[in-house]
Amino acid sequence: MGLPLAQVALAGAFCLAGAALASAQSGGEEEFSRHCALCHGLDGRGAGPLADAMKLAPTDLTRLAAGNNGEFPGNKVSDVIRNGGNVLGHGSSAMLAWGTYFAERGEPKVAKERIAALVAYIKSLQQK
Q: From CA 23, how far away is CA 58, in angstroms rounded?
């Protein structure tokens, strides 16, 4: 006796959504290690190899939710990645604006996907 078709379709949709999230996180981890870890460290705590050479210490990305009443500030993280440190409240213009760099050949959809993957990965780093 098999499952009704609606249940099979729903289960398939959840599997696809889970796979997309896992893909975004693994893609985000790759983007992070390639573009963010030099300053923020592989663990996201702000102690990357270039951190000592910076005037302001890089943000500890594992504590973003803790510093925001337990809520991960996904929109703000996305804005900072896209626009750099000139985003109000970031505190430093030392943070590069990755949005233009990620928009390979003027394709903003590519930038949006890469930034979303990074945000998902940084969210996965949050400590309580």
A: 27
